[in-house]
Design brief:
The protein is mostly beta strands. It is built from twelve helices and 77 strands. The N and C termini lie far apart (103 Å).
Length: 1152
Amino acid sequence: MKRFFWQIPVLGILGVCSQISWASYDLFFPEDTDLFRLHILEQGESDNFWGVAAQGTVDKNEINSICEGLDYWARVLAPQAANTNPIPILIFPSNGEGAGALSVSTVDFDDLTFFASALTHEDYESRLQNYLASLPEDEWVSFDDFKSAAILIGTFDWSHEPLHALPDNGDGFHLPATIVHELTHALGILTQVSQTPNGQYAFMSDYFGLWSQGLRDSNGKQAESGMTISIGGTEYDGDFVLDNDSLYSGVYFTGDHVQEVLGEGTTLSFPEIGLEQYEKLVPGLPVNGAEPDSNGGISPELSHIELQNGLLSHQNWRNWTIPMEAELAALQDVGLKFDRKQLFGYSIYASGSEDKLNELTNTSGYYARENGQWLVGTPNEPRLGIGLHIYGSYNKVTQAADILTVGEDAVGIRVEGVGNHLTIDKNISIKSDGPRGAALLVSYGRDHTINLAGDVSALGEQGIAARFDFGDNILGNDQEYRGSWVWDGVNVPDDRILSKITGPLVKVFNVSGSLRGREAAIYIDESAFVKEINILPGATLEGDIISRWDPDNPKIHSSAPDSEELYTSLTFGYGVSDDGSALQSRDSNFSLNYAGNIDGPSIDMTHKSGDLTLSGKINVHSLQNEGFLTLTGKDVSKHQVTVEDTFINTQGATLETGFDADGHVNSIQAGSADLKGTLLVRPVRAFYASEDTIELQSLVDIQGSGALKANMTVALAEHIDSPTLSFAMKGDSFTDNGSMPSVFASRSDNAYSQYALDTASRSTGQALDSIADKAQGDMQDLLEALDWSAPDGSDVADALKRLGPGAYDAAARASLIQQNEINLLVLRRLMATQTDSVRAEHSLSVGQNDEGSHLSGSQRETKNTDTWQFWVTPYGGSSFQDSHKNISSWKSKGVGLIVGADRHFQSNLDVGFHLALATRRTHVKDNEKALADTTSAFFGLQAIYAPDSWNGLYLTGLGRIGVENGKMDRTIYVNGYNKQAESRWTSLAGSLQAGLGWDAQFDSGRARFALGPLAFVEYAFLHRPSLDEDKGGAANLDVDDTTYDSLLVNLGLHAGWQTILPGGNHLKCDVLAAWRHELLDPSFATSAAFVGYGAPRFESDTDLPGRDSLLLQAGFALSSNKDFTAKLDVGGEFFRQDYTGMNIGLDLAWQF
């Protein structure tokens, strides 16, 4: 076993690591499953079984890269892995260059490698124990010390770039991809050979695994254990023949899973790598033949799959970081168990010819998997999955099923080969919406044609909808670099170019469907030439169009066309055929509004016909407009369009562009310009002073020595979307001298107030009418927002209400309602005091216990004179006012605590005082968005007078005075102008109430009823001082001091019931119902001005929707014979138009 690793420099071409401490240690990975246990040797340590010793260490970055490579295999193998304990893998560093991996296959494990058997066989551990017991003493190792695979990590300029759909490792050697590659050898793609005494090579008899059993030579002969190998085409009887002594000699691998992927009758060529090509086709996977060995000779290698640019190959240029589907199928054929379709929906390895394309419709979709079945419509989640892979050449493929994935670095469709035609049908979705996803990736070859009529998206982070990119070489770009007409590297001859890259990567890309990418809709790498892109009727684009291709790249081979022919043609407005290809005729119905940037100095852009609106930055080689082109860039002070060469506007074409108040134009910077046709100018969103003449700057800024030729008719754009501004042209032409006409801007005297819906809004609008001519700073921003709001003035109407002081009216109304709530609760206490006197009489008259005997003195209740009763009432209240006409709705909620004391006099006069603390929050909604918070403190007096001689008649009165601290956050949002004005105040507030009532008493056994009328009036006021808002910019209000008041008359009935419970406690309930009417003017008006602008002032007019309402209140009380009373009071105000109020209070009283 010790000699096996001497073959690793031959077997490995990928992989590796270095390290940190000086004692071996274990890492378990992945953390969630512990599928693998990595045993990492440190300097000087050795492993007896594998016969290796560590040289150096493995550092942290290399450990992370090892884990990145292992993570790929964990995702593939873990779901069906048989092992219950982590599989041990030996990792040892070496001072030599290169990398390798090994795990040996024997008959003891059904010709699987140790590593593959550990993943596959449930009885692996018992097999291993038997195997170890049979080893010679010098190779013996304990079960606990055995490692199922070994990976050598040599020194190299490693790149630790994670695994992506395409490598991005620059000149470094891609270590994570190396680990993926090397572990495939440990999983079974490995051939062991030995030399016979006469020097001939043969397959080893003891270690002849399933991979070797699947090998065939160019004659179709199957490899056998111990079979000799003939190199160079010399065929001995029974030999396994390699046609030559080079890399490619006709050997291939086949198996059931491989054939399932390749398809019936498919034959593959050996890849084009620049050496003398091997011309034969094979009905399986091409396999590496012979390579130079360490002794200076040539020996069979037979351990790498030679698919073009494949990860598992021995080619000098590879842009795959993971195995292709056919390579995964080979692993299934060597005994591994996993669901291959989790990673590949469908693959096409077959090829047609340039004269006769291989036509097929792919009805295989790509979705999530469960129990080996597709979950149609549910996106696939695994990382690095691929929905459709086109490997072969000259195929005409129609994709007729959805491909849905949200996996990281996943690809919808990947295209390679030469001359493939791909059509994505209408109503078909290709979605790769995970991080770094690519819905369409063309990564190798030339002359591909793509028709996109469906829905293609890559909306995850860094997602690219259509990506044209060869990618880096996982061995490092300094080793070899490829692109369109680009072949450069250490061993690349200057006078040669590979036939598969002698042309544009994509010949034509037609888009008539939806193309959406978060980072880019279209990305063209510096390595890829795309000849023609046509954006056709029906297309929608989201995301930038980016090209990094450089026609003057010095690496482009001399066989390429002149650089003038290496510019990408980007055309808008051609017609579209039924198959999604472009017609060479204009379509006047073409219409596209594109918000993305177009960044490509190698792009020749043409708008053929119809309407094209561009709002992003444009940076192209040339631009020609033959239709209606609208530029809507927001920052007109800078060039929206940069044209390296020539900008042409043809006769009959129309260019529309914007200008601002300073005369800046959405201009074009160009090397030269030839302008005919019509120029329409359109004011962009900005603040325009009234009666102002705007001198427009030149449309084109010529750079260098180029010329401007211009003969354009200039006019205002037909639709100017402002409800308040008017514009008129002064002049009508743009000529060679570059001068532009001027524009006159005006605003009517009632520009804003004309849209008012009520008197209050009109006064606010008139203030803005007056301010418009002298507006500065943030006020200009506010007026700009109004000037460019909805053209019908509806936004202005809403804004006028929002900008006024009406929210202060709503907050004041809520404060007065709070006074009414406190009044009612204190009144109810007074009425309860009156009832207590009645209850004392009642106790004497019906004072019998349950047995019918008279109550003793201790059981009878009398209301003592000159005594104090102390009470506390926590309460809560809420009010809801719906919108009415042009009045905003609001809701208010508050809580409070009332503490008081009453003293009863012999004359049946009760007098007391109370303290009230309250807090309240009021939300003003609809157009007047505001949030008001208040806290209040009050002191009050209350009294009730009910002499016995009045026979139930009583008088009540109370008064209260206090302060309210308030704050308001008023939200102003007008067409993108968003502010929050803040204010603070301390108000004076108070209330007076006076009333009378009469209760008739009725006895009924042990209970007594009371019923009678009552009436009371209450006056409440709030005086708020003047204040200035802040933090609201131009919307800050200078609010005048204002007094708000209310006078309510209440007429109704009071009913009560009370009884004595066993034990002497008293239970009672009562109800109050009254009609409530507002006597004062129900409208509130708050006067204000905009801070810093003084007159004219404006005021709100907030009406109370209804003056009349029904007041309902009910109470439930329990009094003990221990001088304690608890009472629950609930009620509210109802049937006032669009208003409802509710309150609840708990009264607790003690008599001393």
